[in-house]
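Extended Data, panel c. Modelled sequence:
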Amino acid sequence: MLLARHGLTDLTGPVLAGWTPGVHLSEAGRKQAEALAGRIAEVRLDAVVSSPLERCRETAAAVAEGRDLAVEVDERFGECGYGEWTGRELKELAKEPLWQVVQAHPSAAVFPGGEAVADMQRRAVKAVREWNDRLGEKAVYLVCSHGDVIKSIVADALGLHLDHFQRITADPAALTVIRYTPIRPFVLRLNDMGELRLPEGSEEKDGGENFTGSDAAVGGGSGTT
């Protein structure tokens, strides 16, 4: 499975977009998606699967272009349900008591009016298992999803407790590759940017992510740090 995060949007970094509708790739994000598609143009894909959110579907569409494949949407790869945190700036959310729970003990975190991080991981990992079964052991497929979802899938593949998933990074348009076998998964690449570079000027979208020097940005961050 090739696991890709969507490209940059105008909200990536400073704002927790979550399930906010109408969040599309920015110009920089479209360039990232095109570059990602170019990197794997020679890789045979049996399916391209996406979160239902626009930024992922647009990234997945760039990968599927020129292939005899339609992008298949699976809501289980959708963003974590951040509830009342949706649409708020990360620098404000970092002051909430729940922020430290998400950082240090995410398996116990439930977003107000939203989803538990553990439930997000369960539905995403279940989706991976079902796609593996559906496509078969020789299949190669791409899933385009979101930072926290990707991190939770990688944690499962590495055999890590969910409380360690903040040690994993999922940058915009980065690629993670996991090979699943009947016995165990193997993480072959992690957050691989290859020749991808952030477009000029995108460094300004830091959004103050390094809140304490060690915090992980909820939602995955902008990839500029």
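Residues 117-135 form the longest helix (19 residues). This feature is highlighted in the accompanying rendering.
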